[in-house]
Amino acid sequence: MGLVSRIVRQLTVSGFEYGLNIAASYTFSDKAAWNNEVNELFPTIAFELAHSIPGLLEQYRSTMTKEDSRKLMNTSLKNQFRSFIVNPILKLPISMDQARTVIVNGIDRCGYRKARTVLTIITDALEVFDLPLRFIISSNRDTRIQDVFNLPSLSKVSRNSL
């Protein structure tokens, strides 16, 4: 396990001590690029958010059938993010008092193009919608991935490099 993975694991376990209200986390496996694991990212995050944000599970149950959920798994990542995360959060009857943190570890493992797509989807949503979410996204040092993190759209949201 690399240094970043150990830090992420520690944040997940004791994030509350750091003022991080960690609601969901996802770690890409070493084989993520070959098994299309990226399609599990947003549904997994949505599942964890549903169990950590009051009212969100009920929102899912009232608006999405299991069949709808299965069909969404085969749609674009952008559609998955909107359907599984953005729309249900925006439909919550009460506003969340504190931003929830989502950790995505090892984004580089899903491949450059998919990593760029995921980062762009998240960044665009944070700019357009008033989502009470903050993302901690980690990657091994890779020039192409670093180029994605250096995109102007990502710099507008926030970026720190360790």
TrEMBL record:
InterPro entries: NPHP3-like_N (IPR056884). Residues 3-139 form the Nephrocystin 3-like N-terminal domain. It holds the Pfam family NPHP3_N. The keyword Repeat applies. Keywords: Repeat. It comes from the Eukaryota. This is Nephrocystin 3-like N-terminal domain-containing protein.
